[in-house]
Every structure is written in C-alpha cells, then in structure tokens.
Design brief:
Shape: globular
Mean pLDDT: 84
Largest sheet: 6 strands, mixed
Low-confidence stretches: 1-12, 279-294
Number of strands: 11
Helix content: 25-40%
C-alpha cells in the first residue's frame, strides 16, 4: 500500500493540499426513487475535497466540469477529466479527491432496474446528450412518465469511453519506495541506475518488478503518473510552463510531447477545454496504462 509522506493513506495519493476538506461517504446523496432507476445531482466543490474509503449500494456514475476527480480503487488510480466519467459498480470500495472549484456531478443507478452492468470501474464517455439527460433527471419535479422516458434513453446512450486514464500501483516491496517517492514528488528525476544503487539492487530487478506489477517500464510508469498529476494542475489553472517545471521536465516541449502521447492532445488544448467549462482558479504565469512509449 502506498502512503503519503506523513504515513497516512491518501485517497488521491498526492500530497494533501492546505485547506483540503475530508468528507465521509454519507455526504453523498444516495436516495432511491419509487418510480425510477436513476437519481442525479451536482454540487460545486468549494475547496479541495477528499472522500474516505466507502462503497454504495447503488451503481454510481461521477463526472466533473472545470476540474478533475481522482479515485482510488484497490491498486488502481483513476483520473476523471472533462468529457469523461467513471462508473463505480455497487459495492466496490473506493476513495476520491476532487480539485477546488470543480462542478461535481453524480448519478446513482438502482441495480435491479438498470438493464446493463459493468462489473468493474469503467470510464464512460460523457456525451452532450448523456449529460443533458442526467441533468434533466436531476430535477425533482419530473412526472413519472417523463422520468421513465428519459431513463430509457440514458440506458441506450451510455457507453464506455475509448480513453480510460488509470494508473496501477506496484504493491511490490522491491519498488514501493520508488512509487512512494514519485507520488510524493512527481518531479523526482532520479534515474533507474540511481534508484538501484540507493535500494541496493540492480536496475534489471527494478525493471522486472515494474513490468510484473504494473505492465509498464519504470520510465512509462513515471510518465503516466506525471500526466495524472498534470491534469490536476492544469485544471487548477497552472499554465503549461509552470506544470512542466513542477513535474521535473527540463523543457516544456518534453512535457508537451509526453502529455500528448498519453492524452492524444496537448496540455494547452486540455486547459482550453477546462477554461471553457468553468472559471480558472489559480492562474500562474510563467484504456488503462495505454498510449505510452518506452
């Protein structure tokens, strides 16, 4: 298990920001309706917010606008960003963190009235139609026939996303120290050889351990972790150069290339999409584990 620099398990895994609000699962609405299968709602997250480990008796679909959400499920970390959501099956234990100012949306689906099932957490494409339908279902004054019609369309249009951003944590005592250091400081630039000397092992052992536990090389895993962190920083309003420096890249061009390999777009384009969907809060001048090169 990977822990924060203070020895405590952190739902978002990153160093906890000052002013972070920690909530229990009870803060999330999970009321069921007598007439329908779906209950939707949204709220503004006024400060960085973490939810401790919990599970729901209903399936949950979460998405955000103007920010990001990080969810920890076992040994995997999912980052939810603009245009994508995360389906959490009923009963699956998870924890999460949302960035300050994010518009946090959630929809709960009654398992016995939902005509499909994803057996594990799944990235969902939040198309404009799906978002509009779920926003419509968040109304409390809908007549039963109107609610049932909207739910039927939701069931027809909800589909997995082709782009799932998930990071598998090693959980291997041979390399857990490396993972902890990088989660605490993604800018840590120590090489494979330097880590091998520090841990009293060989770079071949470290390489083999990363491949066996995460499916990625050391360099690929660090790159993926940095992209997860970059999404949070960009959503918080930091510019590309500042994010590049914070993540330890020697040149912004190297960061841009790495980000594009994973995300299929540039960090500038991503920032533009976030800005278009919500106010930037901290202006500063200045498929799982896929899409990576060695």
């Amino acid at each position: 298990m990977v822990r924060s620099s203070r020895g405590e398990v952190s739902p978002g895994l990153w160093r906890r920001e000052a002013g972070t609000v920690v909530r229990r699962a009870g803060a999330l609405t999970e009321r069921a309706t007598d007439s329908g299968a779906v209950v939707a709602e949204f709220r503004i997250v006024p400060a960085p917010t973490e939810w401790a480990q919990h599970a729901h008796r209903l399936h949950e679909l979460v998405w955000v606008r103007g920010g990001t959400l990080t969810s920890r499920v076992g040994d995997r970390v999912f980052t939810v960003f603009e245009g994508h959501g995360l389906w959490m099956p009923a009963g699956v234990v998870h924890a999460g963190r949302a960035t300050e100012g994010a518009r946090f949306h959630s929809a709960f689906f009654a398992p016995d009235r939902t005509p499909f099932a994803f057996g594990e957490p799944k990235a969902i494409a939040m198309t404009p139609l799906l978002v509009s339908l779920l926003t419509h279902l968040s109304r409390t004054d809908l007549a039963e026939p109107a609610r049932l019609r909207a739910e039927a369309v939701v069931f027809d249009v909800i589909e997995p996303s082709e782009h799932e951003l998930a990071l598998r944590l090693p959980g291997d005592p041979r390399i857990d120290a490396i993972a902890e250091a990088l989660l605490d400081d993604p800018a840590d630039g120590r090489s494979l050889e330097e880590w091998a000397r520090l841990l009293g092992t060989s770079d071949r052992t470290i390489t083999r351990a990363f491949r066996q536990s995460t499916g990625l090389s050391f360099a690929q895993w660090r790159q993926m972790l940095r992209v997860h962190r970059a999404l949070m920083l960009l959503s918080d309003g930091f510019d590309v150069m500042s994010v590049s420096e914070r993540l330890g890249y020697a040149q912004p061009s190297s960061f841009i290339a790495a980000f594009r390999r994973v995300m299929g777009t540039t960090p500038g384009a991503f920032s533009g999409a976030v800005t278009a969907s919500g106010d930037v809060r901290n202006p500063v001048s200045g498929g799982e584990n896929a899409g990576l090169s060695a």
